[in-house]
Amino acid sequence: MKLSNIHLKNYRNYEELSLTFSKNLTIFLGENAQGKTNILESIYVLAMTRSHRTTNEQELIQWEKDQAYITGTVQKKTTKTPLELTLSKKGRKTKINHIEQKRLSSYVGQLNVILFAPEDLSLVKGSPQLRRKFLDMEIGQIDPIYLFDLVQYQSVLKQRNQYLKQLAEKKQTDLIYLDILTEQLAEFGGKVLFARKKFVKRLEFWANSLHQQISHQKEQLRISYVATVPFEEEATAEEIQGTFLQELQRNRKKELFKASTFIGPHRDDLQFFVNEQNVQTYGSQGQQRTTALSIKLAEIDLMKEETGEYPILLLDDVMSELDDSRQLHLLETIEGKVQTFLTTTTLDHVKNKMTVEPEIFYVHQGEIKGAETE
């Protein structure tokens, strides 16, 4: 999978920008706050329909403009697919091959991306919410059904919490409606949990292999999915749904008192163990960074395994955050097989470490100089 071009209009600090990419490694070079990350972000937004940097989509639209546009062409083994995304106050509009898509799950997955930014090094030490978002974003790209089930789960969860609040405030007394919402929550939640369980197992397989390489065979990495709904490792989606429903019914009094849903995928987490020691609690900073790097790189092979195509890798000023050894492992892993877009303030991190010749775009105050610019 490759992105052969991208066009921006009224996006962040770019009124109009067209770039064509001809090589496997593209570097956006320039000082900080010049617009390098905005280009990388636009590729991510074209793929995922949302930014990794902000939840306020209005920030993506240039000041005093009504809409922002991103278009690009995805090249796969046998197909070329134009993608279009329009951002406005009314929301997002997506098109594949110039045909508008009504469902997010129909669009996401056309362009698979893996983003690695400095904040991703906090995947291990950060909040559970960060790790849940990581799971949802990555599984959603390779499994559109997961994305649909997740959206349904979140919708029912919101309705259920609102109804629990109304019951707690004595504004409602109908427990039958609560039963209906509870059954729906268990149905969609069970599917979400089953998909996460499968994904984490495959992620652990690839990440452990990479972690051993980076640590020179000194460390083993284990990833554990910490579920608030207890289920067996070999449980089916239907069995998980049944257990989830039982647990919700068992917690009903507590939920009615607190007016909130206490268990489910929205409360779950990941734990990482290096040589069976919890790296989040007891690991050194080096071990935590190696774990984060192993996980991000593992996604490359995992996505290839699931989709038949390598994803696109976005490296946002992450080289400066890694020592020489980890930089080398990162570059060796991606070299020759993954189209990579990299932002940096200096070429020192990649010079003499890669055998492929990069395509370099120089970024200064929102102006781009380099090959194939328009």
TrEMBL record:
**Start and end residues of each RecF/RecN/SMC N-terminal domain:** 3-366
Q: What domain of life does the native source organism fall in?
A: Bacteria
> Known Pfam families for this protein?
SMC_N
Per the record's keyword annotation, is DNA-binding included, yes or no? yes
Q: Which SUPFAM superfamilies match?
A: P-loop containing nucleoside triphosphate hydrolases
Gene Ontology cellular-component terms for this entry are: cytoplasm
Presence of the UniProt keyword ATP-binding in the record: yes
UniProt GO BP: DNA replication; DNA synthesis involved in DNA repair; double-strand break repair; SOS response
Where found, per UniProt? Cytoplasm
Q: Which GO terms describe its molecular function?
A: ATP binding; single-stranded DNA binding
User: What positions does the entry give for ATP binding?
Assistant: 30-37
Q: Which InterPro entries match?
A: DNA-binding_RecF (IPR001238), DNA-binding_RecF_CS (IPR018078), P-loop_NTPase (IPR027417), RecF/RecN/SMC_N (IPR003395), RecF_2 (IPR042174)
Q: Which UniProt keywords apply?
A: ATP-binding, Cytoplasm, DNA damage, DNA repair, DNA replication, DNA-binding, Nucleotide-binding, SOS response
Q: NCBIfam families this protein is in? A: recf
**Tell me, what does this protein do in biology?**
The RecF protein is involved in DNA metabolism; it is required for DNA replication and normal SOS inducibility. RecF binds preferentially to single-stranded, linear DNA. It also seems to bind ATP.
The family line of this record is:
Belongs to the RecF family.
Q: What is this protein called?
A: DNA replication and repair protein RecF
Origin species, per record, is Enterococcus phoeniculicola ATCC BAA-412
Q: What does the organism's lineage look like at the top?
A: Bacteria, Bacillati, Bacillota, Bacilli, Lactobacillales
